[in-house]
Amino acid sequence: MYIEEVIVDGFKSYASRTVVSGFDPSFNAITGLNGSGKSNILDSICFVLGISNLSQVRVGNLQELVYKGGQAGISKATVSIIFNNNDRSNSPAGYEDCDKITVTRQIVIGGRNKYLINGHVAQPGRVQNLFHSVQLNVNNPHFLIMQGRITKVISMKPPEVLAMIEEAAGTRMYELKKETALKTIEKKQRKVEEIEQVLASEITPMLDGLRKDRASYMKWCSNNTKIERLSRFTIAYDYSCAYTKASDYEQQHQSLLEAVESTLTRKKDIESKAKQVSDDLENAQRIREAQMSTNYRKLSHEVENLSKTLVKKSSGFDNQRDSLETEKSNLIGLKAQVSADQLELEKNESEYKEIQSEISRLELDVQKSTKEEANAQRALLTGSGGGNGSSDGALGSSVVDQIQAAKKGILSAETEVETLKMRASHVQGEYKAKLASLKKDQVAVESMRQEQSRSEKAVQQVKLKLHELDYSVELAERLASQKEVDVASLQKVQDEYDELSARLSSFEFKYSNPTSHFDKSSVKGTVASLLTVRNPIHSTAIEVAAGGRLYQVVVDSDRTGKALLEKGKLQRRVTIIPLNKINASTASDEQMRSAQRVDPNVKLALSLVGHDDDVEAAIKYVFGRTMVCEDMDTAKRVTFDPKVRCRTVTLDGDIFDPAGTLSGGGNSRSSGPSVLDQLSDLNNLRSRMNKLQKSLRKVSLKQGINVSAVRA
User: Fold this and answer.
1) With the C-alpha atoms ordered 178, 180, 183, 187, is the resulting torsion angle positive or negative?
2) Residue 186 and residue 332: Cα distance in Å, rounded?
3) Stronger pLDDT, 400 or 469, i.e. the higher one
4) How far apart are CA 564 and CA 513, in angstroms?
5) Residue 419, Cβ neighbours under 10 Å: how many?
6) What is the DSSP letter of 202?
7) Mean pLDDT computed over 173-189
8) Mean pLDDT over residues 125-135, rounded?
9) Are residues 399 and 380 in contact, defined by beta-carbon separation less than 8 angstroms?
10) 108 has which bridge partners?
């Protein structure tokens, strides 16, 4: 590459556009009179080459390079050099296809300084790299050897000569780049150390705190879910109890209404009876006012007695009815009552016999008193006919007294006899009532004995049927015990499932049906829920390989995805994978063979997961071009192998990309179970729940068969 033309416009002494051409490919010299502008041509070349030491071009700043410093109406200076690039072996890197290369530099008064390569604006570094690639470094101290410096060059020491040779050969440029790169690396290393220090002192503790907060939040969510579920159960139980109480209160209300109606009926009857009695009383008062005779007083007395008797009978009737209800409720103590009645009956019999004997004795006394009275009367008659004087008077008075005393004795004896007769009749009535009650109790006892006998016979028949059906109590107890154990296990597994599902709620895709006839089977679910890791050792690698695609939702078609996005009422932003549109590709067989030549243990991530056939395209889209290696060294060699060039993931979660990026350090297997392991645990818990539910159904079925057999 050599100079063909130099075009100068507004630079130093060249006010107008000047073209200098006819340069020789090997040797050139600029000649002319003093002040003709020879040095300015060299200065323009150095200006384009990007000289930084302005003293070499005899100015103090770039503004002085403009013609007369911009005082003559010219405000910018432009220099363009056209290089011949026919020699492709010595052409600059990246410009092998250009026959000519035009490099332009322009400065504007009060404006910016810019470079152009082939008419396109370029950065100064790009221009410097272009010239450095063909060993042109204008900032080399030996690039320009001015007058008076020949002797100094001749007398240079070997290190200085070596430096000049390196500059001429173009190797110095790479040394400078190396030093610049080392300085940049050192700065970056300091920055990395500062970042690591910030991570260790601030971000890592903050992340630990956030992880604890997240765990607390997930526990709170789980507890809140349990509280809501138990609250629903409590409300349902309270509602059931309230409904039962309301039914009981309704029945009590109906019974109270019936009682009130009966009471009102009785009240009407009593009022009618009272009205009738008051009417009778008024009639009696009118009759009493008409005649106040002895018969009326007797009738009045009888009315009062009848009224009292009516009240007594009414109260007695109520008491009898209450006692009847009491006796009905006390049937359990029937045997004790029978024995008590028997004792009372024996007592009444003995008392009745005593009363009968007392009545006989009193009758004898009455007869005796009657005889004595007759004798006294006869004596009185005899004494009054034959006696006289005071002695006779005294005797008469004593006989009269005796007669009166005898009459009193007779009256008292008669009264006592009547009393004893009434008592005897009362006792006899009680005796008959107790006897009738005893007979009733005996009948009830006999019926209870018969019922007991029938129950014992029924029990024997049931035992015979159980024996015929080969039914054993031990089997029933064993089934009940097994059912109790299964219920407890199911409750425990249900609690674990609820807690884990609350922690993994972000993998649950919630939506509303876009249409009334929406087919829910068209929504397959998130990628994480559609795959299973065959070997837990690969869980971290599979999780890191999938990345954010684990949360993406798989549907059968783009129409379903569009309906979900428009009318599904989604609670968060989601990415949808339609199976009919997804472009799924996998690593070729040649790439796999090349990768396994590097390390036979390299596996395609797609081969490490299980899935249903209908979602195979989505799983290929996620894992089809990712390989899993055991360590970082193997992953690096596989990724950058020219015949492989595929993304790789180590078992610890480090990612190597063919583009040159490396990610890792935050997904170590030592940090706890991966999300896919937790999803696998969730599926295992769901399977255990299904098995326990099937076991419970089998136990209930066996119990139902046994009960049906017994009933049959």
Assistant:
1) negative
2) 104
3) 400
4) 8
5) 11
6) I
7) 87
8) 81
9) yes
10) 76
Cβ neighbours of residue 87 under 8 Å, at least 6 residues apart?
1
CA distance 471 to 710: 8
The residue count for the chain = 712
Q: Which residue has the tokens 């290089």?
A: 83
Q: Which of 257-261, 611-615, 683-687 has the lowest mean pLDDT?
A: 683-687
2 in helix, strand or coil? strand
Q: Is the pLDDT of residue 469 over 60?
A: no
Q: How many angstroms separate the CA atoms of 450 and 374, rounded?
A: 67
Distance CA 511, CA 564 (A): 8
What is residue 54's predicted lDDT score, i.e. its pLDDT? 81
Residue type present at position 524: K
What the block records as the tokens of 507 is: 């993998």
Q: Which residues in 86-199 belong to E strands, given as ranges?
A: 100-108, 113-117, 120-122
User: Does residue 328 sit in helix, strand or coil?
Assistant: helix
Token pair of 709 as six digits: 């057999």
Sheet arrangement for strand 100-108: 18-21, 2-9, 76-84, 100-108, 113-117, 120-122
Which of 8, 1, 16 has its CA nearest to residue 38?
8
Average pLDDT over residues 541-549: 87
Mean pLDDT of 543-551: 86
pLDDT of residue 185: 94
Mean pLDDT, the chain, as a whole number? Answer: 78
pLDDT tens profile 362-419: 667 667 766 766 666 666 555 544 444 444 444 444 556 666 666 676 677 667 767 7
Which whole-number Å values give the CA distances from 160 to 89, 104, 139, in the listed order?
30, 33, 16
DSSP state of 201: I
Token pair in block for residue 457: 């016979």
* 254, amino acid identity: Q
| Token representation of residue 139 | 């900032």
Task: Round to the nearest angstrom and report the end-to-end CA distance of the chain.
Answer: 113
